[in-house]
């Protein structure tokens, strides 16, 4: 029987496309929509980065020293992006200075996503079998299903929207706890 489940790297590439599209939407958005779209972006990044941290990085580290260094490099990029996000959260979308910081974040996330697509994902695809890649994909889907990250279905009134609120760092902590609880 053909296995139609997507692989982890396919799913993460799709999420990268969503992230890029949200960045573009935010840059073109009217001022009154910016805060909501920025919240969507923060949630999407929290879910995505946490899933990578829990599902992808351990698998990468098991592939040996070279892969271990690739994971470390990605974590340093992630750390820089987290700092920029924290600065943006402190400023808020209406403040002067938000725009230029936002451009910095967009560039940092783009560099990070490209490095994953060109270095980390091919490593996993080269070393792991399709069965493993699909199983890891299921874990990422679980993470996403628990925290819908698309722009419309989660206004402030939605339960799942509420689950992922607060500063980015706090969202990542919550998401990490939920993923660990699910993996047990
Ligand atoms: Fe990524």
Question: What does this molecule look like?
Answer:
The chain is mainly alpha-helical and 184 residues long. It is 80% helix and 0% strand. It has one domain. It has seven helices and no strands. Helix 2 (31-61) crosses helix 7 (168-183). The relative contact order is 0.18. Mean pLDDT is 84; it is low at 148-162. The site of fe (ii) ion (FE2) has 6 residues, from helix 1, helix 2 and helix 4.
Keywords:
mainly alpha; 7 helices; binds fe (ii) ion
| Number of E-state strands | 0
Question: Which cofactors or ions or other ligands sit in this model?
Answer: fe (ii) ion
Termini separation: 29 Å
The number of helical segments is: 7
Q: Please, what is the average pLDDT?
A: 84
Shape: globular
Report the structural category.
Answer: mainly alpha
Uncertain runs with pLDDT below 50, 5 residues or more?
A: 148-162
Topology:
Layout (H helix, E strand, L loop, with lengths): L7 H21 L2 H31 L3 H27 L6 H30 L2 H17 L12 H5 L4 H16 L1
Helix pairs in contact: 1-2, 1-4, 1-5, 2-3, 2-5, 2-7, 3-4
Quick recap:
The protein has 184 residues and is an all-alpha fold. It is 80% helix and 0% strand. Residues 148-162 have low confidence and may be disordered.
């Amino acid at each position: 029987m053909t296995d139609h489940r997507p692989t982890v790297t396919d799913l993460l590439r799709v999420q990268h496309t969503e992230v890029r599209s949200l960045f573009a939407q935010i840059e073109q958005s009217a001022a009154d929509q910016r805060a909501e779209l920025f919240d969507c972006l923060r949630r999407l990044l929290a879910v995505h980065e946490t899933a990578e941290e829990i599902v992808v990085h351990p698998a990468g580290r098991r592939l040996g020293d070279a892969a271990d260094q690739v994971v470390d490099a990605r974590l340093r990029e992630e750390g820089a992006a987290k700092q920029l996000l924290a600065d943006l959260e402190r400023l808020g979308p209406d403040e002067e200075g938000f725009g230029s910081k936002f451009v910095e974040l967009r560039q940092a996330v783009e560099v990070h996503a490209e490095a994953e697509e060109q270095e980390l994902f091919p490593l996993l695809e080269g070393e792991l079998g399709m069965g493993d890649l699909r199983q890891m994909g299921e874990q990422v889907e679980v993470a996403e299903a628990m925290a819908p990250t698309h722009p419309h279905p989660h206004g402030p009134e939605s339960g799942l929207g509420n689950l992922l609120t607060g500063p980015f760092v706090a969202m990542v902590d919550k998401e990490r706890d939920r993923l660990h609880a699910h993996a047990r």
